[in-house]
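Exercise: predict the fold of this chain.
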Amino acid sequence: MSAAHRPSPWLTRRRVLGLGALAAVPAVTLAVREARSPRSGSPDTAAAPVPSVSSAPTSAAPLRVVTSGGGPVPFVAGRAMLGSYLGLEGKTLEQSLRLRRQQLGRDQRIVNLFYDWTDNLLTAVPALPPRAVPMISWAGTKYADIIGGASDALIARAARRVARYGHPVMLRFAWEMNGGWFAWGGAKNGGHSEGYIASWRRIHKIFRDVGARNVSWVWSPNWNSSPTADWNTTQSYYPGDAYVDWVGVSGYNLHRESPEALFDGVYQLYAAKKPIVVTEVGAVDRGGRTKADWITVFGQWVQNRPAVGAVIWFDTDTHPGYDEKWRVDTDPQSLAAYRAMAGLERFSA
C-alpha cells in the first residue's frame, strides 16, 4: 500500500498507490461460510463471505525454520512482536499510541515510520513506548542514483543519524521492489533487479563503515510480483543472507485472499534461514463479521508459522485515495478480534 501524504515533518507516507496493480491478479479466496450482513443496500453486502477459522488451510508439508537471528532486533523463537503503522484521523502519533494502549491493554512493540529518500531519518521522533522498536521504512530512489556513488554522502548522513539514535532499529529500505509502482522497483529501472541488489549492498556497506551497528536490515517484497516476469520474481531481488536480518512481506486482504495466499509464498522461500516479519497487513470490511473473522484467521496463521517473529498492522484511516478504513477499530467486532489476537501468548515478545 502506498500514498502521497505527509502528516508531519518526521513521518512520511508512501508516494504512489500500489494496490491497483493487484486488482488484475486473480484472488485466492478463503474457505468461507455465508453470513447475513447487518448493512442494507448493496447486493454485494447482503450476503458477505466470512472466513471460517476451522477450515482455513495450513501448509501441506512441515518446514524447517529458523530458531534465532534478527540482528540487533533479535528474533525470539515461539514469540512474535506486534506493532503497527499508526495514522489516525485527527490524532498525533502520541495520541494514537495512547488510544491503542487503552483499547488493547498493551503497548506497540514496533512502530512503523515512513521516510522519503532525502528525509532526515529519526529526527524529531516523538517518544515511543519503552520497549517499542522503530521500523524505518525508507523510500528508495533510482538505482543509478545509488550504485554510481552520487548518493554516498546522503546515505552516510542517514547512517550517522541512525547510529546516534543509539537503540536497535529495523531498517526497511525500498520495500515492495517487485511491484510496478515505486521508483525503486525493477519495473521502473529498465526491467531488471541487479541494480536493486547493488544498491542494497552499497547502502549496507556505508552503514557499516560509519558504525551504524544498531540496524536490523529488513528486506520486504510485496506478496506477489507485478509484472510477472522472470526478472521480477521475489528471489531475484534478494541481496543475500549476509545483508539481510529479517525477511518481510506486505499483503492485504483486498479480494478475499487468505493469509496463506498472501504470505506463504515468502514464508516457504525464506523461513528456513531468516525470521519473517509481516511488514504491512490489513483487511477490507465487507460487512457483518468479515473483517473481525479475517483478523482471527490471520492470528491463527501466525500461530501456525513459527518463523514469524513480528507483525505490523497498517492501522490507519488517513490513506489517500481509499475509502476503506484500515484501522483496527472500525467496528466493535474487529477491535475485539484484534484485542484477542494481541492477547495471545504468541504475541508476547
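Check your answer against the key: The CA atoms of residues 97 and 107 lie 7 Å apart.
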